[in-house]
Amino acid sequence: MPTYKQFPLADTAEGLTEADILSWHVKPGDAVTVNQIVVEIETAKAAVELPIPWAGVVTELHVEPGQTVEVGTPILTIDVDPGGAAAPAAAPAAPAPAPAEEEEMKPLVGYGSKAVVTQRRARRGAEPAPVAAVAAPVAPAPVAPRGGYVPLAKPPVRKLAKELGVDLHTLTGTADGGVITREDVERAANGTPVVASTVDSGTRERRVPIKGVRKMTAAAMVQSAYTAPHVTEFLTIDVTPMMEFREKLKKSREFAGVKVTPLTFAAKAVCLAAKRTPDINAVWDEQAQEIVYKDYVHLGIAAATPRGLIVPKVRDADSLSLKELAQALTTLTEVAREGKTSPADMANGTITITNVGVFGVDTGTPIINPGESAILCLGAIKDQPWVVDGEIKVRKVLQLSLSFDHRVVDGQQGSEFLADVGALLADPAMAMTY
């Protein structure tokens, strides 16, 4: 007799309550092995690939790409004993997995090369059960959705679009909720414009559901803006010596092949300055009514990705040399752009740097990340007139801004920290005195 098991959407060890289905890696009738990647989901923090803990034959996919489902919802049915009888095209509805079956799902992994030991949220009246995650099998890297937009279309429609060479990302569905229909694809293949129904036919607009990274970022920013009293200070500095030092490092043998950027110097400056002003690296614990001082720096780097803004961390950045920081920042940026940053890599930061200068912007008033007390903003480095020894000269000028939580950091501490960072960037040799 066939033995059916339902594969529920699991909590990927980040307090997950719901996730969006991005894409399926299997279809009904496919044979799968233990820990084979079967689906890619998007949580509020990252795209994650989920493996299945059983071997067998897929009989039914319960959720379509683009749909949002709650944790614990069955998303796939598998026949784990296909030799018992011919597997039907679709399995009958089955009850949610029993606790014993949940235990079988312990080897669940997201993508990533590091083994992580995490703990599942405890059910009421039960002790928390540890869930071990192991290194994921080698699998093709997921393709990040363009601009965070996931086309809503059923599997047969996706198949038709592939056969006709139609890019679903270029279509706006005419069905309710923006779902792309078979007719939409056929019209696009024939060169006929697809016109979506709108509330006001005289407007030209596109609606995208608020979910995933965008939803998480919005909630975090609102929480921070209305919880922590923000203060923002600004400092303009001449970083010509820093840029000259950067050129020297490029020519040195030790830094051969290492990408050293202004962000690298800023990261080192933040770590050094935080040691002199520990308040900047502390956090307000409202529940415990305590200020938590941290003797380490988990440095967050705000990164713009196709999925939206994320803030991965450089762990123990204060223990790294300038070269090691440069290498860590390069890796962090590459992983973020590929959409492979794991939820664990974005948790538990202590202070953040955001670099708006890469967009040619002079400065900004950044919002502090929840769980931290300060964020430093780097502006664009531009040639500007500057007074040097009583003479006006053209210099490399940078604007800094620092937002901090005034519950934790007083004006004096915030000003001292910003002045220290500025001094280190204006003259890297100052680091010898710290």
Secondary structure layout plus pairing:
Blueprint lengths: L3 E5 L9 E7 L6 E2 L3 E7 L4 E6 L3 E6 L6 E3 L3 E6 L19 H6 L11 E4 L10 E4 L21 H10 L17 H8 L22 H16 L2 E9 L1 H12 L10 H15 L6 E3 L4 E3 L6 E3 L1 E3 L2 E3 L2 E2 L7 H16 L13 E5 L18 E5 L3 E7 L2 E15 L5 H16 L8
Parallel strand pairs: 14-18, 18-19
Antiparallel strand pairs: 1-8, 2-4, 2-7, 3-6, 4-5, 6-8, 9-10, 11-21, 12-13, 14-17, 15-16, 19-21, 20-21
Short description:
By secondary structure, the protein is an alpha+beta fold. The chain has eight helices and 21 strands. The radius of gyration is 26 Å and the shape is elongated.
What labels would you give this structure?
Chloramphenicol Acetyltransferase; OB fold (Dihydrolipoamide Acetyltransferase, E2P); elongated; 434 residues; 25% strand; alpha+beta; Dihydrolipoamide Transferase
